[in-house]
Design goal:
mainly alpha; 5 helices; transmembrane; membrane
């Protein structure tokens, strides 16, 4: 349940703040969300990856549809990629990796300041 909440918070903040800020602010969003809410490393990475990646992919697809794939077709031709839609997926992948690693960094940074629990000799 916490994964879904983190994913929605990261995705919503990314969606609303990315048009007004620099591209790297989405990494700060994922970092801070996962710093504030404790989680495992994999859980944080998945939330950041999906939250940022889906928003970036949706935004790239929206821009592609608005200009009738003119820009992506030219870019795909220059890069010698067969299908222009691969650029949309590549944009989502790049955003997802940036968000995922930022979220993972937020979780591990939080763990630096938490004392490890004492293990009992009998358990």
């Amino acid at each position: 349940m916490k994964l879904i909440i983190r994913l929605i918070v990261i995705g919503a903040l990314t969606y609303f703040l990315s048009p007004f800020t620099m591209w790297w602010v989405v990494m700060l969003i994922a970092f801070l969300v996962c710093y504030v809410s404790p989680s495992s490393g994999l859980n944080a990475f998945v939330a950041g990856f999906l939250g940022v990646g889906l928003v970036w992919m949706g935004h790239a697809w929206n821009l592609d549809v608005q200009n009738d794939s003119a820009f992506s077709s030219i870019t795909a031709e220059i890069m010698q990629i067969g299908d222009p839609i691969l650029l949309v997926f590549a944009t989502g992948l790049i955003g997802g990796l940036a968000g995922g690693f930022a979220a993972l960094s937020g979780t591990t940074f939080r763990q630096l300041f938490i004392k490890p629990k004492q293990r009992s000799l009998y358990s």
